Amino acid sequence: MSKFILVTGATGKQGKAVINTLLSSPQAKDFTILALTRNDTSASAKALADKSASIRLVQGNLDDCHAVFASALKATNGAPIWGVYSVQQAVQDGATQEREEKQGKALIDLAIDHGVKYFVYSSVERGGEKSGQKATYVPHFISKYNIEHYLFAKSENGKKMSYTIIRPVAFMDGLQPGFMGKVFATWLKIGLRPSKPLQYIAVSDIGFFAAQGFLQPEDPAYKNQAINLAGDELTFNQLNDVFQSKMGYPIPLTFEFLARFLKWMLKEISIMFRWFDEEGYDGADTSTLKKLHPGLLTFGDWLEKESGFTKH
Hints:
By secondary structure, the chain is an alpha/beta fold. It is 44% helix and 16% strand. The protein has twelve helices and ten strands. The strands form two sheets. It has a seven-stranded parallel β-sheet with strand order 3-2-1-4-5-6-9, with helices on both faces. The protein is globular. The mean pLDDT is 95.
């Protein structure tokens, strides 16, 4: 019997990466994906559904998790939901620390109430092995810390519902071609000391590790584990050097005064970049991750294989 997996944020970067990994795995036939979207008639939702007959669209909003599960169970014709992938909007588009935390905790409650067997939660790296004890002062890191501990408590540390928590670092995909990629690159240039490295991860690799909980639910590397995720660690100058060597030109930037103004306007971003400079993402063990996933992308790999940048 096919296992039903509810994937939240299914048309977003992380959700699509999880779905792609599941669909490309040898076990793909064992799963039916319930792809949660706020609008199941949108172009992105329709494109997702066209990928595979194993995808069923579920319309809903995480502000009402009861309705989400009701819609999901309608899509399964009443069959139980075996797994849930949980990711919440952290910044922008009306997101707040309180809203993110409320959504994340409600999804845990409803998953347990409906007998979900495996729960994968997308959190954030906050200091390596100390991430579980460090909330930091970044608002959307605090909400993720609180959701993690709620999951520990409600699942009785995996006894009532198995879980995997993934804690990614900065997204390489934030540097993709376009205006916001230029803004992000400029924030990195002006927001971090020249000597300060930061860890990065490709979203496709987030999808890989998130999916392993569903694909290998009894593997001790994933079952009831929290995993810090990174594929590379670079200062801005190193980041720019890699970009130059791979693409033949410097990493695209925007005007510094504009980047500073936008960062000032986006208070959450300002706080996060202050933490980047003071502490920052540095706790993921890339050598161990590489053993679990030999295809783990460095920044150079990502540029050549996934970024969309053209070489000169």
